[in-house]
Specification:
The protein has 307 residues and is mainly beta. Helix content is 6%, strand content 44%. The chain is globular and about 45 Å long.
Length: 307
């Protein structure tokens, strides 16, 4: 498998209008620039005319993007994009700045919405959000998971978890090739594995419960020479098997190989199967959810929509 972003299309069925968007990125670094990545695609069978709107948390300010914005109005950045043919995938890298007055560990929420001129048949995949915490420093090679807890019903429904792997060249020479290995043990249903996107071209193999991303000839510059250019990331989804029991944990880690160096080990993500009554939202999650619902005009009883 080779690519940046891709989606699942419905081949041979005319009249399907379906756009999709995903958002991921680094935790905001107080007083510094960091990056967000927007991946969007036409997964239908007809041409689409998309517009993307990214709304930043109040502590963030827009700096630039790899695709020129159509408008910037306060915290909202809009891109009116060219017509996309079926199967088209593209992405926008956005640089943002975090206010130096931001409180460390403060919750931060950004969200993106894709609209189309045409009548999109599936609005669930037209919006996504990323929430994190403002930091004063960060581990440049890490892994994050979308859910810390899932319910037994989520397990039965095989709710997909989203994983983000981020990497940075902190060495003293450009990284020519980067290989990332991710062990997906017997708790995962690999038939549900789905790539969301990546910042650089890659090849991917998934075999014997190991996913391997190869960024060949990436020529990733050093942090000292190009702080933002020295970073990369990718995101994927996968569902656990429906046989998990209450109290069991899903753990995951990635090993990052920069050329011939010893691997850099990311942190281990943990997702626990727990009863819904025990999943009281943390204050930051409640705050993020409420702000997103207000901004999108949703009732507070409506759950967060995922890409």
């Amino acid at each position: 498998m080779i690519g940046y972003w891709y989606g699942l299309r419905l081949p041979g069925i005319p009249g399907i209008y379906d756009g999709a968007v995903d958002l991921w990125g680094w935790n905001p670094w107080i007083g510094n620039n960091t990056t967000l990545y927007i991946g969007y695609s036409n997964i239908g069978t007809e041409d689409l005319t998309p517009t993307i709107a990214l709304t930043l948390d109040p502590v963030l300010s827009y700096v630039s993007a790899t695709t020129t914005a159509t408008s910037v109005n306060g915290q909202t950045i809009i891109w009116a994009l060219p017509v996309m043919t079926p199967g088209t995938n593209a992405g926008i890298t956005v640089t943002v700045y975090t206010d130096p007055a931001t409180t460390p560990n403060q919750s931060v929420l950004d969200y993106v919405v894709l609209t189309t001129t045409e009548n999109d048949i599936n609005m669930v995949n037209n919006t996504d959000d990323v929430h994190g915490h403002a930091s004063t420093s960060f581990d440049p090679n890490d892994k994050a998971v979308s859910e810390e807890f899932i319910t037994p019903q989520d397990v039965v429904d095989q709710k997909k978890l989203e994983f983000t792997v981020r990497f940075q060249n902190t060495g003293n020479a450009p990284a020519v090739n980067i290989v990332i290995k991710d062990s997906l043990d017997a708790d995962w249903d690999l038939s549900t594995f789905e790539m969301i996107g990546a910042t650089h071209p890659y090849t991917l193999t998934v075999s014997n419960e190991v996913a391997i991303w190869t960024f060949a000839n990436i020529m990733l510059p050093t942090e000292d020479s190009d702080a933002l250019g020295s970073q990369g990331s990718f995101q994927y989804r996968v569902a656990p098997k429906s046989s998990l029991n209450l109290g069991e944990q899903l753990t995951n880690r990635a090993d990052i190989y920069f050329d011939f160096n010893e691997p850099v080990l990311t942190n281990t993500t943990v997702t626990t199967v727990a009863l819904s009554t025990a999943l009281a939202e943390t204050p930051w999650a409640t705050d993020c959810s409420s702000r997103l619902h207000r901004a999108m005009g949703w009732s507070t009883s409506v759950g967060r929509m995922h890409g």
